[in-house]
Structures are given as structure tokens and as C-alpha cells.
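WARN no homologs supplied; continuing
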Amino acid sequence: MPRRTVLLFAGLCLVIAAVLAITTLVVVGGRDRAATGGQTVSETGQPSVGGPFTLIDQDGRPVDQTMLDGKWSLVFFGFTWCPEYCPTTLAALKATQDRLGDRADNLQILFISVDPERDSPSVLKDYLSSDGFPEGVIGLTGTPAQIRAAADAYRAYYKKVGEGEGYTMDHSLTVYLMGPDGKFRSALGGDLGPERSAELIRRVMDRG
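OK structure emitted
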């Protein structure tokens, strides 16, 4: 075979190998992103959820992410004017809390408002004291910029819908289970129900 033909054939083989390698990287990378919902993954293999925040609690005191340290936490984004999902979720978390028994003593629930325009600390405090909601829920609010930063840290979606006094807030529905180190452990979907949610929390707590 002439030298020129050999060189052309070898070059063609290298091009084909490079294309196959790139294709493999794209396919595998796409599968990895799909498996994690398109989220960044930490060194532990968990989606990168959570991070620094600065907010105001229902008593008007400034707080930050260190309030997660040393306790298990359920973090939930919502708003007090929410007509259905937020009160339903809080009621379900109370039922979950009841099923956890003594383990609930080391579990705090954080309700972060996505509606700082209406949800002042006093409004949050009054709302969260309603019968049927978990005892000791910590309501958090802040400036629009502070709320946005907290939501971005947790990859939580929200958007104002409508104008005037009748506006509402569209928002994501995930409850985040955070470990005593302040890092993400698992997500609780609204379809789990109190029994399965309590079982999931116990299982995650056992793993540490």
C-alpha cells in the first residue's frame, strides 16, 4: 500500500477514535446530569443543595446558616397567603413529627417565606402558631435580595404571579432534609405522606 494511502488511513482512524471518545463523554455526562436532576453533585455524591444565607426569624432576630448546626432540619419554602399547598405541607409535617416520637426532639422545621412583601416577622409568627401546624416551626423572612440568595442556595424556584393586592407566588414544593452538619441529605416529596416521610427521616438519621 502506498505510503500516502497508509497515512491517510491512519489519520482517518484517529479522527474516528476522537469522535467516539467525545460522543462517549457527552452521553455519560448527560446520563450523570439526568440522574441528579441537572444539579451539581458534591464530593459525597449528593446534589449540591444549601449554603450560606442571612435572614430574619419570626422574632425579628438575624440568623444565618449556622442555625442548622447540631440539629436535623427540614427546610421548606412557602408563604403565608398560600391557599393550599403550604398549609397542607405544614399539617403533613406535623403528622410526620408525631410519628417520629423522641427523634423529633432533634429535628427542627424552617419555613422560609418567598413573599417578603407581605410576610413580616410578626405575620410569620402568627401564621405558624395556627392549630394543626408543627410546634416550634421557625419562620424566616428578609429582604427580597436575602430571600433570593437563600432560594438560590437551595435551588428553590419562586416567582410572583399577578399584580396588586391579589398577587400570589408560584414556588417549588420540595422539603429539604439537612443533616446536623448543615449539608443536604434527602428531599421529601409531597406524595410520600407522613408515614413514609417519617420512615425516610429515620433511615437517613441512622446513616448519619
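Strands lie at 54-57, 62-64, 72-78, 107-113, 138-141, 158-161, 168-171, 175-178, 184-188.
OK
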